[in-house]
């Protein structure tokens, strides 16, 4: 009796492996057949560009329930990339979750959040002139993060969460390849990043105190135990160091985790409770609105001078002077730093009733020097992202579906 069972196990193992190979072959063939000369050159030299792509095809049943078929390009290599601002989406979701789990009836994301300073490297925040009421809040920080990728707003959420809880809560949800070790755009030591500021919440109507969180310190070490070297040289201040730069102390996230985060926020009901964030439907609505809202649709802050594509690389990375059509909405979070460009997007067309999810990372650093500000974003990375997104968009326009998706839930009343 054991031989038939063994045979079946081997058969299904081969069948499963074949299916995986077919998925890989699909995306490789698709990229070669559907990209322009720039795109093909990048796809044919993926090691140089440290290229990774994930595409999820979404189909609906007669009840509009989604199912996913996901294709991967080079994600199995687990090649390091610096995640830059993409980690801000984790911070946004966890901050809303923390507000809920504090279980303080009068406290919500719109209440005043005051940040104090008690340790070296820390700064305080008492006002926010970009907010309608002149004060900072979790809600306003998230809006600034999602519409224009504001670095200081992220740092304030990092301080609210604390380094230890930030990491451990993500691990508990299965984001195993994510490491959050530092604030963004300011140079602090590992010790300074382990210390996070005291925070106070004040009722926005009565000015009564609602919650006080003392300064926090993470005794856990979330840096990578082994070295991660990139490039041939790097700038440290004005000094050129002619050795590779070590990223072991930097933030990290796999493209698989970023893509999973996106799907869990867009389709949270499809995931196990342990994988979901503890958010209300109002919270999800809030996140999705500002993930898709354009700078020109935003009142506070006034982003009217910022182009539509500023944080929309996929499909529109090379469209600086064009408005994004209103019927196309991109729910995403981008990042670019140290030569890495990342976008993580759920894209819909409300006129043609199509939807798909696409995530990609590309590295452009021809001189192989880090920290010098000389990266080929405009010449290579952003145009590639635009071409890549439009290729999958055209494919989705032509793809036959048994049931047309109802995308009504993704129509939002934007600020203006």
TrEMBL record:
The keyword Signal applies. It comes from the Bacteria. InterPro entries: Beta-lactam/transpept-like, Beta-lactam_cat. SUPFAM superfamilies: beta-lactamase/transpeptidase-like. It holds the Pfam family Beta-lactamase2. Residues 1-19 form the signal peptide. One of its GO terms (molecular function) is hydrolase activity. Keywords: Hydrolase, Signal. The keyword Metal-binding does not apply. Residues 77-359 form the Beta-lactamase class A catalytic domain. This is Serine hydrolase.
């Amino acid at each position: 009796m054991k031989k038939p069972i063994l045979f079946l196990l081997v058969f299904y193992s081969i069948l499963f492996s074949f299916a995986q190979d077919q998925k890989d072959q699909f995306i490789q063939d698709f990229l070669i057949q559907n990209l322009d000369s720039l795109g093909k050159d990048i796809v044919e030299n993926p090691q140089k560009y440290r290229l990774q792509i994930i595409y999820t095809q979404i189909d609906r049943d007669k009840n509009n329930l989604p199912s996913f078929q996901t294709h991967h390009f080079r994600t199995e290599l687990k090649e390091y990339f610096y995640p830059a601002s993409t980690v801000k989406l984790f911070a946004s979701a966890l901050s809303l979750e923390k507000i809920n789990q504090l279980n303080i009836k009068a406290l919500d994301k719109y209440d005043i959040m005051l940040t104090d300073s008690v340790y070296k490297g820390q700064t305080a925040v008492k006002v926010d002139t970009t907010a309608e009421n002149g004060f900072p809040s979790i809600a306003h920080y998230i809006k600034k993060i999602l519409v224009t990728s504001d670095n200081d707003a992220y740092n304030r959420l990092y301080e609210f969460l604390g380094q230890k809880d930030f990491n451990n809560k993500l691990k508990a949800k299965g984001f195993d390849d994510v490491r959050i070790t530092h604030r963004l755009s300011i140079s602090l030591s590992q010790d300074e990043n382990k210390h996070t500021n005291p925070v106070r919440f004040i009722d926005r109507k009565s000015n009564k105190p609602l919650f006080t969180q003392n300064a926090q310190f993470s005794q856990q070490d979330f840096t990578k135990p082994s070295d991660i070297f990139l490039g041939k040289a790097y700038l440290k201040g004005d000094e050129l160091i002619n050795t590779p730069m070590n990223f072991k102390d930097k933030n990290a996230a796999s493209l698989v985790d970023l893509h999973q985060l996106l799907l869990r926020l867009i389709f949270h009901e499809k995931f196990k409770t342990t994988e979901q964030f503890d958010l209300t439907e109002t919270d999800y609505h809030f996140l999705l609105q500002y993930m898709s809202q354009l700078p020109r649709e935003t009142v506070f802050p006034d982003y009217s001078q910022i182009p539509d594509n500023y944080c929309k690389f996929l499909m529109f990375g090379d469209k600086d002077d064009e408005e994004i059509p209103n019927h196309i909405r991109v729910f995403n979070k981008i990042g670019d730093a140290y030569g890495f460009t990342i976008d993580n997007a759920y894209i819909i067309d409300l006129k043609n009733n199509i939807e798909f999810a696409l995530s990609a990372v590309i590295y452009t650093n021809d001189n192989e020097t880090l920290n010098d500000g000389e990266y080929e974003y405009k010449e290579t990375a952003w145009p590639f992202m635009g071409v890549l997104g439009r290729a999958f968009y055209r494919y989705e326009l032509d793809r036959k579906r048994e049931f047309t998706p109802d995308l009504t839930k993704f129509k939002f009343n934007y600020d203006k």
